[in-house]
Amino acid sequence: MKVLIVGGGNEPSGKLLEDYAKKVDKIIGVDRGCSYLLKNNIYPHYIVGDFDSINRDDIKKLEIDSIKKFKYNCEKDSTDSDIAMEIALKMEFAEIYMMAMTGSRLDHSFANLGLLSKANSAGAKAYIINETNKIYLLEESSKIKKDNSYRYISFLAYCDKVENFNIKNAKYDLENYTLYLGDNRTVSNEFLEEDIEVEFTKGKILVIFSKD
């Protein structure tokens, strides 16, 4: 089962929303994200938030029995996106796609990166998607499939250090490297004709597909 969570960050294009809406089984709208969906005639199955960033007309459109609502006060201990992730995990979705999770509020953008780790810990696979990037978290060695939608691929430590890090079959290979938090040596790599293999013995890696 797959779910799409649409938050209140930078608005995705209609095409991006429509493409992913077709891939998933359920959709969760998070506050302003509900308006992004409705703008493209996409109705979520669940809506989450305090709804302080959505206009009244859109709220009225969402007041139908087929949409389940999770309403919370503005002052709470979790962000709306975090609550949406908790709901998705309780419903045992195996793949979670998140959009409008990045934007001008860098605190929210960085906090949303933490949701990737929360999903992994629960046995799910989560992705943050925007117009130019796809981000996910690796906690074990893996083969990474080429995605022709993106030109670049970067690897960033999401811990103090990643030990014995190897990159194979990429434009820039790497052997037995210790990748520390903040190290930029593994930024802007590229695929060749084959899938890329990454190996490491300890740590967590953010994988970022990017295009200009």
TrEMBL record:
Keywords: ATP-binding, Kinase, Nucleotide-binding, Transferase. The keyword Protease does not apply. CDD domains: TPK (cd07995). Its EC number is 2.7.6.2. SMART domains: TPK_B1_binding. InterPro entries: Thi_PPkinase, Thiamin_PyroPKinase_B1-bd, TPK, TPK_B1-bd_sf, TPK_catalytic, TPK_catalytic_sf. GO terms for molecular function: ATP binding; kinase activity; thiamine binding; thiamine diphosphokinase activity. One of its GO terms (biological process) is thiamine diphosphate biosynthetic process. The keyword Nucleotide-binding applies. Pfam families: TPK_B1_binding, TPK_catalytic. Residues 140-206 form the Thiamin pyrophosphokinase thiamin-binding domain. Signal peptide: none annotated. PANTHER family: THIAMINE PYROPHOSPHOKINASE. This is Thiamine diphosphokinase. It comes from Clostridium lentum.
